[in-house]
Amino acid sequence: MKLLRYGPKGQEKPGLLDMAGQVRDLSGHITDVAGDALTRDGMAKLASLDPESLPLVAGTPQEDLRIGACVGNVGKFICIGLNYADHAEEAGMDLPPEPVIFGKWTSAITGPDDQVEVPRGSTKTDWEVELGVVIGEGGRYIEEADAMAHVAGFCVINDVSEREFQLERAGTWDKGKGNDTFGPIGPWIVTPDEVGDFNNLGMWLDVDGKRYQDGSTATMVFKVPHLVSYCSQFMSLQPGDIISTGTPPGVGMGQNPPVYLHGGEVIRLGIEGLGSQTQNVIRA
Known about the structure:
The protein is built from five helices and 18 strands. By secondary structure, the chain is mainly beta. The strands form five sheets. Strands 5-4-16-9-10 form a five-stranded mixed sheet, covered by helices on one side. A hairpin with a 3-residue loop joins β17 and β18. It is globular and about 55 Å long. The termini are far apart.
């Protein structure tokens, strides 16, 4: 099952992507792809629906039909740093002994094809294709063996980052991670049964047609069940929370010389089986 949100900014409606790649309206069953709709019971009810019985939405998704962020009313946008062995090597940093956690502000969240803004004063805006984990069933102190029962699905995330703000401005990483538009999410949530082996998904990112990132979730240091369990030791996880699980090598900071976004570029990125995103870069 692929769940999404479609329509103008701030007016998104819940939808489902059918087997033909068309959007079906879920407004008669849920108010949003958020909260209780993502719990085990909520997802089971949605899975029981016949897609062909749902109203067909006019337009082609990501062409003449805007797709919004695939989760509404996100409570927490949790991110994991240095979680790919090859990216840590690229960054010249040691592998962490346990997951590095930081946050993006929820005001950073945008649709998968919305514009990305280079912040005022920025000289080092960067990109990161990441696997997103959407929490379905909430919980605290979740055992790793039970972690996947708390996952509603997976999605594509671009963890846009300003490296000077992140690393050189006398603060935590959060300062360079949560700017407006720095969190494109979607196009859809894909349920685990459709994803298959989430530990071996190809992932890629291009800027202006040049391939910079070409990796796989196989090089994750800490896998998804561990991350869900680990995060739940420090906070309660709630339906609709998102965990962004780190990026493979090929970020702008890692190029020789470094390559950053200044406005005018086009970013395209995707993950095997989860869809793709396209963003025009502008200056704030």
